[in-house]
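Z., the sequence and structure:
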Amino acid sequence: MGDDIDWLDLPGRWTYGVCGDGRIFFIDDDTKSTSWVHPGTGYSIQSGHFSCAGLPRGWEVDTTLHGGLYFIK
């Protein structure tokens, strides 16, 4: 998916959620269904953030382009 597409630009009554592993899913509030693909673009989205065991509550970890880890609160 191109970086110029705003994945928060959702049609109708769609919202989104984020799993603990960083995967973003989309929720159709009208039909009460979910999807891994963006309802407007047809592409799945990966935030890159993920939580892992041992991190304090509310902390996530991500990686730089060079593979280094950094932490997010």
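The chain has no helices and five strands. The chain has a mean pLDDT of 78.

Let me know what you think.
H.
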